[in-house]
Design goal:
Blueprint: E1 3-7, H1 10-21, E2 29-33, H2 44-55, E3 59-62, H3 70-78, E4 82-85, H4 90-99, H5 103-111, E5 115-119, H6 121-124, E6 157-159, H7 168-178, E7 184-186, E8 192-196, E9 199-202
Parallel strand pairs: 1-5, 2-3, 2-4, 4-5, 6-7
Antiparallel strand pairs: 1-8, 8-9
């Protein structure tokens, strides 16, 4: 059964993550992919997420897929029960995951019950494609990205930061431009989407 925790802001929803996905039966180790933040000036969410994981008792293993080899990235993802993918630029993140041939590998691991934690960009790439993210993230930061096809783990399109500065206008533009085309699911920074098998719940 696939298990996903999708959020706009992990530091603001860590208690929800703990409630739904932290179990004494699973090793408390998370592979932490900060890659989407590489091309962003704002990086505070990365440190805050790491602090929250530590508070929950997790050992955090950072994996920047932009600099890691494909083999090293796959080995780390293969060995973890929890995979966290941070926010930042969605297109750059997708480009780097594709460069290391990680999309199908991550889907396989989710099918094996690895728990997927996606914050903002890390959540949006669970959709079938990320074309809709253009009003929020500059796609020019990913010049090698040939297609918008993403993980396709869910049949909806996460729309994070609803009503939240500085993304509120971009969220409205995405809703107007793509609302008729895609099944958009909007959340603010205190909400999360819980996916367990075919069950999808906003909390």
């Amino acid at each position: 059964m696939k298990k996903l925790f999708l959020t706009s802001y992990f530091a603001g929803t860590a208690k929800l993550f703990e409630q739904y996905f932290v179990s004494d039966e699973l090793e408390k180790k998370v592979v932490f992919i900060p890659t989407a933040g590489n091309v962003e000036e704002y990086k505070e969410h990365l440190a805050k997420a790491q602090i929250k994981f530590a508070e929950l008792g997790f050992a955090v293993e950072v994996l920047d897929v932009a600099t890691a080899s494909e083999a090293a990235a796959k080995e780390k993802i293969e060995q973890t029960k929890y995979l966290y993918i941070a926010g930042g630029n969605t297109f750059y993140l997708l480009q780097e995951l594709k460069r290391k041939n990680l999309l199908d590998f991550i889907v396989k691991r989710v099918s094996e019950e690895m728990i997927y934690i996606g914050e903002s960009a890390g959540g949006m790439i669970t959709a079938p494609n990320v074309e809709y993210v253009q009003p929020m993230d500059p796609k020019e930061l990913a010049p090698e990205l040939a297609s918008y096809e993403a993980l396709n783990l869910v049949d909806f399109y996460l729309l994070p930061h609803e009503g939240e500065f500085p993304f509120a206008e971009a969220v409205e533009e995405i809703s107007k431009t793509y609302g008729d085309k895609y099944n958009l699911l909007a959340i603010n920074n205190k909400q999360a989407i819980i996916v367990k098998g075919n069950e999808v719940k906003k909390v």
